[in-house]
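Loading example: each entry is read as two labelled lines plus one structure line.
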Amino acid sequence: MKELALMKGNEAIAEAAIRAGVDGYFGYPITPQSEVMEYLTLQKPEERTGMVILQAESEIASINMLYGAAGTGKKVMTSSSSPGISLMQEGISYIAGAELPCLVVNVVRGGPGLGTIQPSQADYFQATKGGGHGDYHLIVLAPASVQEMADFVDLAFNLAFKYRNPAMILSDGLIGQMMEKVELPPQKERVTTFDQSWVTTGKTDDRERNIITSLNLDPDRQYEHNLKLQEKYKNMEQDVMFERIACDDADFLLVAYGSSARICQKVVEVARGRGKRIGLLRPQTLFPFPTREIAKLSRRVKAIMSVELSAGQMVEDVRLAVKGKVPVYHYGMMGGKIHSPDDVLHAVEEKFMGGF
Amino acid sequence: MTEEIIIAGFGGQGVLSMGKILAYSGIMQEQEVSWMPSYGPEMRGGTANVTVILSDNRVSSPVLQSYDTAILLNQQSVDKFESMVKPGGLMIYDPNGITRHPERDDIRIFQVEAAAEAARIKSPITFNMVVLGAFIRIKPVVDLENVIKGLRKSLPERHHHLIPKNEEAIKRGMEIVKEARLTA
């Protein structure tokens, strides 16, 4: 029997976390994602599954609690919004360096600085290119519906433990605040099924001591460590995820993720209604990025437009994939203002004019 | 079927909860639904609005610039959203407190004196249900039976004793809604 609910995206993340058998959540409130911790607290997950919910004194404390708890092999997560995620970057870099699995949710708001509380996608660079110091990447998932907000929690932990790497769900105020029908995942037992050979929960006689650190003073060892990390990031390509919408016969291609992808779906519907052959490629993972798929499509379409709530960030990765074969444009509003389907449609008509 | 609806009014009029009940009703009717509120600074300025989409297909954009139906409950909302109703679309408004009435002649305009009716049945808080009744009478995109089921899902159990009162308000709205006569 399907268990349906009408929920906000933020609430769906919280409910899915309890059901995924997450052991701990450490967070600090910030709009537009405060519902995550509000919902968790109201649900009393300490009674439902034994999950720990802790409001830390700051985002910096939360991420370091995550670092410590992740080192014990537990499934742990935090959530915040742009300025809070910036505060966490030191910790995230350490966690990536120490190769620990965990989940960080960023419900993005307009920036830079304290910015606004309205939706934005301007944290793409920060999420996909590292964000903190050093050569590292997060696994980045981009839900475009409340259903995916729920589904991507378990997926994020599976990938995080598979690669021993922090994962991020990159959402925004639009997907976080809206309500949709969601089919809730079944309740999992709060017991780990992942490899625990590396965890630091006490040395046993039959093995060497496990060490979790991001410090390697010897440059040769740090070099080896970096090679290993790079190899891991390359392997992640096998887990790339995307959705193709009306791409098969498309003359023009939109590339958009998350909230912008929803808006672009409407653009495709309207344009197709007018006989214009437009398709949409929707990355569900931003790292790994669907570079190959975009390269493949670029051999068939006349032009591509990346639509993002930013000054143009993902468009750089689209251009790298396309390698100049066809024109690649950017369209997007900034600072918390949301482009409507009409706005995008106008931009599409203007840029793809020759083809219309 | 896809119905794109904007509901707008003052904070406290039950705009968001009316949208939520409508969305739940859609789920009961096995539709795809989305509910997108204005939040943040806009809301704190005293007006609230919510976009509700009911559809037999997957819902695309939750944010829109034109609507099949606008349900407008104060002057600011009439001023802001009248022009955003699709030609041939529907507007329902409560004339209470309205000094500049809607003027378009390419859409269908209905009045529901919901504030007055809710006061008359001595249940001012069911104001939004009177409005909802008016809407499902003019555009039966969801059945009354599913609206009642939606109410049951949407209201916390401790408020379930209020459901008959809400049902009465919905039925009153269905009865009193009337086509607005435009005065030139």
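The first helix of chain B runs from residue 15 to 28.
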